[in-house]
Amino acid sequence: MYPSPLKRIAVFYDGSFFTNVSRYYRYKHARQANISFTGLHNFIRQKVAGFEANGQVEMCQIVESHFFRGRFSLKSVNALADPTKQLETDRFYDQLLMRAGIITHFFPMNENVSPPEEKGIDVWLALEAFDLAMHKQYDVIVLFAGDQDFVPLVRKINSIGTRVMLMSVNITTDLLGNKLPRSIYCSGKLLDEASYVVRLDDEIDSVTESHNQAVDELFI
Quick one: which of 33, 211, 42 has its CA closest to 142? Predict the structure, then answer.
């Protein structure tokens, strides 16, 4: 039996990392728009096609996608000045993920510390990604994340012959609740381990007046 020419892609999102990047483009960038999950998936297919399928996008299909993020308890949300707004925001985000066919994984925030912390998400994402890669034998895993903690995951995925494409950014912004601007970026060690690296911010900012349709469709 001949191997299939189809490139099977799975996408894994560090939800907090993705949300910070999307908020940057909504509030601080000239685009003034959030990143579209559907547009991003089409963009990913085109990039994988360029790396692995001689540009044949139709032979590159996203077969699975997962989104991991911490979530506050209802008690904490109700303590806000306007809890309805936060609940509506969460529901709207869930709707976007659902329509894009993305499986959601939410983990309780650690609300016993101040400020609350997101704990356990990186480990859960890594375990889920490696388990699925082992059993479903994807051709390419796309990781939308930047933390150095994911280096062991990438190494393990490499060891079974699955390639890792890292969606990378290097952005300076004051959106992170600090008086001084801070960076949203990918660890250098993580970049070194990936088979392919796509600098999303460079791709977006390098578009000229001709407007690359795939980049335009990245935004809602």
Answer: 42
Q: What's the rounded Cα separation, in Å, for the pair 98 and 107?
A: 17
Instruction: Find the largest Cα–Cα distance for the chain.
Output: 62
Q: What is the pTM of this model?
A: 0.92
C-alpha dist (Å) from residue 141 to 10, 64, 71, 208: 5, 10, 25, 29
Spans of all domains in the chain: 9-66+133-198
CB neighbours of 74 closer than 8 A, spacing ≥ 6?
A: none
Q: Residues 167, 143: contact at Cβ < 8 Å?
A: yes
**Could you say which residues of the chain have pLDDT below 70?**
1-3, 176-180, 207-211
